Structure prediction request, 644 residues.
Amino acid sequence: MAKNSKKTFYITTPIYYVNDMPHVGHAYTTIIADALSRHKKLAGYDVFFLTGTDEHGQKIEKAAAQKGMTPIELADQVVIRFKNLWKALNISYDYFIRTTQDFHEKGVQKIFGKLKEKGAIYKGVYKGWYCVSDENFLAEDIPEDSEGQKTCPDCGKKAGQVSEECYFFKLSAYQNKLLDFYTSHPTFVQPQSRMNEVVSFVRHGLKDLSITRTTVKWGIPVLDDPEHTIYVWFDALHNYLTGIGYDWDLASFEKFWPATVHLIGKDILRFHAIFWPAFLMAADFPLPETVYSHGWWLKDETKMSKSRGNVLDPNLILDVFGPDPLRYFLLREIPIGLDGNFSHEGFLHRVNSDLANDLGNLVQRTLTMIQNSFGGKIEKIAQERDIDKQLRLAFDSVKDKVFHFYEEYAINRALEEIWGYINQVNKYLAENEPWKLADDESQKENLGRILYQAEAALRGISFLIFPVMPESAQKIWDYLGKSTPIEKESYATLKFDGFALGQKTRKPKALFPRVKLKDFLAEEKSNTVQIAKEGHMDYITFDEFKKIDLRVGEIIKVEKVEGTRKLLKIDVNIGTETRQMISGIADEYKPEDLVGKKLVVIVNLKPAIIRGIESQAMLLAAEIDDKAIIPFFIEDVPAGAKVK
Ligand code: MSP
Prediction:
């Protein structure tokens, strides 16, 4: 097959775990990737943009079990949420890979087999600690706490002890090779500060990495030793190869590998900057050009995450604003490497000031004046004055800077440049006051010249904002009388006065809604309370809800279940009788503190045998960072009263 002469650009997002609904943090990575892909397409590259979902491992297995589903049922459901969100956000990925796809599983097995054959993978026994939440083996030097437990340094959750036969990857053999590689490719990890972190980690020494589990069933089995399930990170990282055709579309694979950039959050840097290049070296694949690590979106100064309960559902914002304001805000507010704090005030300020006022008004008044004074079409213009020339030349310099910043992944700076120019055009209009000339026939030519300048500037602006705000850019383009898709254009064709003259423009509609903070918060609150609209939630009917028999229970007696750390046996009076229930809350509550308390219990759940004891009811509790918090009644309510 003839090799395409265009330069390729292959960009990836991490593949997202399917135990969680997508939130603003996930949307952030994907929006960056989308903006960069769109930019590269306009710059003439042959782009491949890969995203997808990470569906195996203990974390997914557990999440599915808690919901009473099989892992694949859960994955199928969550994948739809991700795909719907990407659609609503206008994400133009080329392929969405799921690690449960057959070709991916086969590809991973094949590479695993190859490494085993080469001796880079060997069998041994792993003894140590494993964090299910991060799907990560803990480093040995992490100390045990007073209860003999270890805590995962990344997520702060308790790790579990494991001892099992497994396969190891000879990571230790790659320490020097990796260090040499970092030296010869100093921009491999971006931003630079992250590179320093990686080098110092590797210099401290690398231990061989356990890459299979026998206690986890939900995953890819080792081909000739199926008791062993391949570790979820070994499985997941290879999506970057299988997603573009490794082992099923050779031409595509050869065209796009190695990746230009793996875009990731800083929490998964080690996997991408150390393990991944080592796996690739072992299998003789060329290494990716860059791993670009971005910061986190925080809410109330802590990382958004489901377990902290501070995630922001992007759907709520999209319902009110459409995709572009969120895309703009996330990309404008912070440089890619830093953390940002998401606040509704900050978001609305940007939307109202930068989008509705600066850009929206410019579009509105320019095109309305062209409609009113020229029937939508300026046929001819007077000669350019100095002030007009300045506006035209400023565009060329802004265009170069914007291009440069997009190339550097400094999207926030590209946007700053564009908005600097928008304000320059607004200033030009304020100084020339075309609205005062409209009724004066002798000023018609002058008026045409001024509006022509603004129209030409808008065309350029719409082009430059396209990577970040494709929908609004296309709308402006359409108002200007062009119906072709911007994505078919290229920077090479972009000139200040490319088509403004004689073009029939249309009457514009407001581009961005103006929303007051109080209305926005009220809208979000009401949505959150009833947990969102159709498409974001699995509703149950009231009749289904009525089947759950909830009662006030009074705790009579509590004792620890022998031989367990977490379980308590609780006798609870539910009005008509006393039931016993087994509950894993010993970390949070002492037995003596519970006696006499009143709480909500489900009394018609099918009894279950836990550690040989029948549990005949279940209490309700909030789960915060893996800790149970029980809501107790503060009023004196009678045991057995119905809760509904
Ligand atoms: N499945 C792994 C990645 C495997 S890639 C071979 C995983 N998944 S994840 O769903 O937990 O996270 C995916 C990405 O979302 C990570 O890059 C993570 O940094 C990013 N984010 C999750 N929460 C975030 C914020 N609050 N802010 C910004 N990005 C965050 O890790």
Q: What stands out?
A: The longest helix spans residues 344-374. Residues 527-537 have pLDDT under 50 and may be disordered. Residues 14-17, 25-26, 28-29, 54, 236-237, 239, 264-265, 267-268, 296-297, 303-304 surround 5'-O-[(L-methionyl)-sulphamoyl]adenosine (CB under 6 Å).
